[in-house]
């Protein structure tokens, strides 16, 4: 009978030990953000899915533990549990990536339909108008879909544009305003973020493929032992 490759065994252990450490870090930071009073007033406001992060950290920790124990103890049961769990996450990751690419072209249409409900902006609550003005200042845009006319009256000062042609100014009721509506700015931002997310997902998928290959190879070697 062939023995178990020491290189494969300890490579599998090292891979899963790093996997386990990542899970510990995510879980620890997530719990700290959840319970820390200082974090609740600063960082946590920008991370609404804190419970999702806790769940992800716990799952990664569990898989790393199964992989480490399965490798060092040469347990086929633990290795199989690790393989199945990693395969499920890999499948979900690939499915989410495919759906993201498929529905990426529809995102602008869905966003347009949503923003259409808030026109004219002038008739919306003061809090909403304040948020739109912040968006216009940040994105150097004016209005939501059609430009300055979306305000239904005189656009606010946040729409005012200098004479710099690079900013894309236009004349509206005697005032230079940004020509680009904020829909374009939001779409560009979504596209940029989607590209980053897809890149990270692809990198994780490649790492998971290595993990699947290591675990199945070690599983088969232990079976032949």
Count of distinct strands: 2
Uncertain regions: pLDDT < 50 for 5+ in a row?
A: 39-48
Largest sheet: 2 strands, antiparallel
User: How large, in whole angstroms, is the Cα Rg?
Assistant: 26 Å
Report strand order across the widest sheet. 1-2
Could you give the order of the helices and strands? Answer: HHHHHHEEH
Helix content: 55-70%
State the end-to-end distance: 5 Å
The percentage of residues in β strands lies in under 5%
Domain module tally: 2
Form type? elongated
Number of helices: 7
Kindly describe this structure.
There is one protein chain. This protein is mainly alpha-helical. The chain has two domains: 6-103 and 198-224, no CATH class; 107-180, Cd81 Antigen, Extracellular Domain, Chain: A, CATH 1.10.1450. It is 68% helix and 4% strand. The protein has a two-stranded antiparallel ribbon with strand order 1-2. The longest helix is centred in the last third of the chain and has 43 residues, at 182-224. The chain starts with 5 loop residues before the first helix and ends with a helix. Mean pLDDT is 78; it is low at 39-48.
Topology:
Layout lengths: L5 H30 L1 H5 L8 H23 L3 H27 L4 H10 L9 H14 L29 E4 L2 E4 L3 H43 L1
Antiparallel strand pairs: 1-2
Helix pairs in contact: 1-3, 1-7, 3-4, 4-7
Features:
Cd81 Antigen, Extracellular Domain, Chain: A; 2 domains; 2 strands; 4% strand; elongated
């Amino acid at each position: 009978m062939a023995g178990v490759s020491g290189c494969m065994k300890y490579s599998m252990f090292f891979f899963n030990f790093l996997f386990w450490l990542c899970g510990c870090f995510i879980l620890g930071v997530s719990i700290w953000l959840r319970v820390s009073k200082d974090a609740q007033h600063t960082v946590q406001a920008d991370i609404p899915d804190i419970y999702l992060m806790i769940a992800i950290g716990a799952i990664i920790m569990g898989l790393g533990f199964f992989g480490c124990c399965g490798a060092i103890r040469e347990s086929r049961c633990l290795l199989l549990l690790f393989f199945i769990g990693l395969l499920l996450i890999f499948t979900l990751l690939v499915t989410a990536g495919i759906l993201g690419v498929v529905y990426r072209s529809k995102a602008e249409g869905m966003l347009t339909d949503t923003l259409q409900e808030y026109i004219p902006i002038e008739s919306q609550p003061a809090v909403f108008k304040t948020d739109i003005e912040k968006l216009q200042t940040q994105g150097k845009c004016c209005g939501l879909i059609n430009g300055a006319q979306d305000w239904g009256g005189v656009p606010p000062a946040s729409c005012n544009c200098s004479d710099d042609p690079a900013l894309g100014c236009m004349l509206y009721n005697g005032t230079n305003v940004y020509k680009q509506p904020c829909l374009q700015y939001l779409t560009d931002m979504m596209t940029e973020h989607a590209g980053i997310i897809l890149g990270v997902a692809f990198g994780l998928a490649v790492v998971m493929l290595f993990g699947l290959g290591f675990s199945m190879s070690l599983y088969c070697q232990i079976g032949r032992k």
